[in-house]
Amino acid sequence: MQTSLMKITPRPEPVMCRGAGSYLWDEAGRRYLDFIQGWAVNCLGHCPVEISEILASQAGTLISPSPALHNRPQLRLANRLVEYTGLHEVHFSNSGAEANEVAIKLARKWGQLYKGGAFRIITTSNAFHGRTLATMAASGKPGWDTLFLPHVDGFTKVPFGDVDAVAAAVDSQTVAIMLEPIQGEAGVVMPPENYLVQLRKLADELNLLLIFDEIQTGVGRTGSLFYFPSVGVQPDILSLGKGLGGGLPLSATLANARASCFEFGDQGGTYNGNPLTTAVGEVVLETVAQPRFLSTVRQRERYLLAGLKQLRQSYPIVDIRGKGLLYALVFDGDVGQQLADHAFAQGLLVNCARPNVIRLMPSLRVTEAEIDQFVETFDQCLRVVFS
Ligand SMILES: Cc1ncc(COP(=O)(O)O)c(C=O)c1O
Predict the structure, then answer these.
(1) Contact 375, 311 (CB under 8 A)
(2) Measuring from each residue's beta carbon to the nearest atom of ligand 1, which residues come in under 6 Å?
(3) 16-34+292-386 architecture in CATH?
(4) What residue owns the CA closest to ligand 1's atom 7?
(5) Could you read off the pLDDT of 282-307 as tens digits, one per residue?
(6) How far apart are CA 220 and CA 82, in angstroms?
(7) What is the pLDDT of residues 221-239, one digit of tens each?
(8) Which CATH architecture has domain 50-288?
């Protein structure tokens, strides 16, 4: 299709015009079962009534007073996030990359104040932290090492899962360790047992900040409100995004009292903490934080996993990995894009995260019937690709 859009990704021809729950519709009236959900963003599904209602009422009340004035939804959401995470202060932004920029700035400021100007942050290979220049430099996505040179300095990459490599990379300029506790864009790579606990220990011993990027794993995605409490590790800085806004551009950076060191003028942004998106964030967080909501996510995880294991019996799936409703199927060949294309043609949206990996990130409200439909449709795609 001829469009006036810059070429940043190959998009299929259909134009999407409506969403409801687990489904999307294109302008031709075709329905798609959506196991991507705006890239793990629509945690309550497409256009949930709670979000439509709060958007309508907040849009009629107050949209953008100014980031330099208080507004009630922002104050309430900040309090809730502090309460739920055990961290101390919050800064709101509009995207995951921005939330990570704030995390990086906090670490650098902390290094200036308390660590003799140390600024280097240890990050992991295959990490994904966003697409601003600094977050690209922090990321380890294959191919990015030669893009948009020169890179922002100050990031040292080590293999994910290797505590010794982190310890070996620390020098007098190191201020923090930053990672996704589960690597999402890398294809849902789980941390080895005790890895995060050992990183916490190392950070404490060496007086480093530990930064968790839970932009993909936070807000119920892994079956608990955040992933870090489930492994018993508290970060110093936490970034949230995606699910927090339930489809609206909202992200947050949280820090404990030790790391929350901004002074006036250090950070800002026109749309930061506007009441329209923070009111939505409040509704999303209160919905997801309900114990019954989260136990249903875990129950749906078991149901999905059973379906995935059933598929594994018939096709060369070498690994199934993930947590909650963030899962990946790993194949022994580079069939991911072919499978995702076949799925699209069958009215099913799945993501090819790596050439050999299919990633699933359905709505946290996905039903058993929708999971059945996914398994049945994906089975047909597997049959075509592997016949
Ligand atoms: C772990 C993680 N961090 C950061 C980002 C960047 O978020 P955004 O695209 O909202 O800037 C993503 C997006 O996929 C992500 O998965």
Answers:
(1) yes
(2) 39, 95-97, 100, 128-130, 180, 184-185, 213, 215-216, 241
(3) Alpha-Beta Complex (3.90)
(4) 96
(5) 999 999 999 999 999 999 999 999 99
(6) 16
(7) 999 999 999 999 999 999 9
(8) 3-Layer(aba) Sandwich (3.40)
**C-alpha 383 to ligand 1 mean position (Å):** 33
pTM assigned to the model: 0.98
Neighbours of 292 (CB within 10 A): 7
Following DSSP, what letter does each residue of 251-316 receive, concatenated?
EEEEE-TTT----TTS---TTTT-HHHHHHHHHHHHHHTSHHHHHHHHHHHHHHHHHHHHHHTTS-
The domain limits of the chain are 16-34+292-386, 50-288
Q: Which residues are catalytic?
A: 128, 213, 242
* C-alpha dist (Å) from residue 81 to 130, 142, 206, 226: 22, 33, 28, 11
Say how many Å lie between the CA of residue 381 and the centre of ligand 1: 28
Q: Give dist(CA 207, CA 172) in Å, integer.
A: 11
Q: Which of 275, 206, 280 is nearest to 242 (CA)?
A: 280
Q: Which residues pair with 240 in a beta bridge?
A: 252
Q: Report the SS3 class of residue 249.
A: coil
Give the ligand 1 atom nearest the CA of 180: 1
